[in-house]
Amino acid sequence: MSKTQLRNSKTDLFNIASMLTDAELEVRDKVAEFVDRRVRPNIAQWFDDAHLPMELIPEMAELGLFGMHIDGYGCGGRSAVEYGIAMQEMEAGDSGLRTVISVQGSLAMTAIAKNGSEEQKQTWLPKMATGEIIGCFGLTEPTAGSDPSSMATHAKLVNGEWVLNGAKRWIGLATVAQVAIIWAKVSVADAKAAGVHPDGDTRPDDEMVVRGFIVPTETAGFRAEAIEQKLSMRASLQCDIALDDARVPVDAILPHNPGLRGPFLCLNEARYGIAWGALGAARDSIKDALEYASTRMQFGKPLTAYQLTQKKLADMTIALNKGQLMALQLGRANDAGTMELHQISMAKLDNVRVSIEIARECRTILGGNGITGDYSPLRHANNLESVRTYEGTDEVHTLIVGQKLTGEAAFS
After folding, report:
1. Into how many domains does the chain fold?
2. 217 in the same domain as 172
3. How far does the signal peptide extend, from start to end residue (predicted)?
4. Per-residue DSSP letters for 57-123?
5. Is 391 assigned a catalytic role?
6. What is the DSSP annotation of 232-278?
């Protein structure tokens, strides 16, 4: 058995590694080596200090992690499965650090790649791929989370410029970003005047539609402030954004996919990455618990020699392998162009839910030592509480699956 096949073999009881291509295994091992070398020795301190290690950004870029699933413009053009595997390995290090890649690539860069003009793509994507420019994605608001259609942020065309007003909350990387993708409501009349209203759309001029804007963070009237005293995702940045008559050129609007389709195309990319990433946190939790239980002596023998401990480890590893098989099937469907919305929701919902349960159960094996930074499960469990909420709560994804089953939309 090769070194590549041996990695993670303790928890790979279903030999999922045998289902991966050489290219996929290469991505896995390259990112895992980075996590082993740069993240694991430092993450407990970063988490304790609530510190995002910006020095990792160039190294992440060098690994090709920013926009790695985007074709062209200096991006990696890797497969969906390769991207998912990379997210699993990054989140085995820490959810907050995986989120950096998700915000940059799946959200900000994907917003431009899927909704932007060719000029916008050429201007922004190459430097975002190299990490020279950091982006953020402003969709969620203080009073508009699961229901983005109720957003209050708006943009008005005034003397050839867009004037944006509103507020966003829980925006990753906003205080260190050079560019923000801001989603705002725009009147059909203003969209027509800007030349981005779809032909054949007969909506009245006073109707408001959601559109995306590329807003440099140095823009006057743009202000970002980090959210402090977090109990989760401490090695990353989540921020508030205020927009007070922030003015950008008329061509700052993203011209394609008006309405909520625009941001949802990006959210689906992020949700897909989460379905893989959460399992990395679960796998790392099992690894820590298994190693600890193998050497922790109680009543003359290691914890692993007790039936209750073996039951915990067996149940958790079976759940992990099932989640990994679902993520792999989802990735294959993504690469084949057959992935459906409800499938993303199924994987994001259940893999995150299962991963939280695994991390919590692993903490019980560690006993009192499990509440320290010396071991990963409780840190993973805390982080996963955020992962469970963002990019769609359990309730939202449950209703997406429920709608697929019943044909009835029960969101309100």
Report:
1. 3
2. yes
3. none
4. HHHHHHTT-TTTTS-STT-----HHHHHHHHHHHHHH-HHHHHHHIIIIIIIIHHHHHHS-HHHHHH
5. yes
6. S-TTS-EEEEEEEEEEEEGGGB--SSTTTHHHHHHHHHHHHHHHHHH
Domain membership of residue 392 (yes or no) is yes
Last residue of a domain, one of 231, 258, 285: 258
Q: Please report the pLDDT score of residue 1 as a whole number.
A: 37
The answer to whether 249 and 216 are in contact (CB under 8 A) is no
Give the active site residue among 361, 391, 395, 408. 391
Look up the pTM and report it: 0.94
User: What mean pLDDT, rounded, does the chain reach?
Assistant: 95
Residue type, 378: L
Distance CA 259, CA 183 (A): 10
> Where residue 8 falls among pLDDT bands split at 50, 70, 90?
low
Given the structure tokens 């349960």, which residue do they identify? 357
Residues 202 and 278: their CA atoms lie apart, in Å, by 43
CATH of the domain at 15: 1.10.540.10
| pLDDT tens digits, 36-94 | 999 999 999 999 999 999 999 999 999 999 999 999 999 999 999 999 999 999 999 99
Domain that holds residue 61: 3-129
Question: Are 139 and 212 part of one and the same domain?
Answer: yes
Q: Are residues 267 and 392 in the same domain?
A: yes
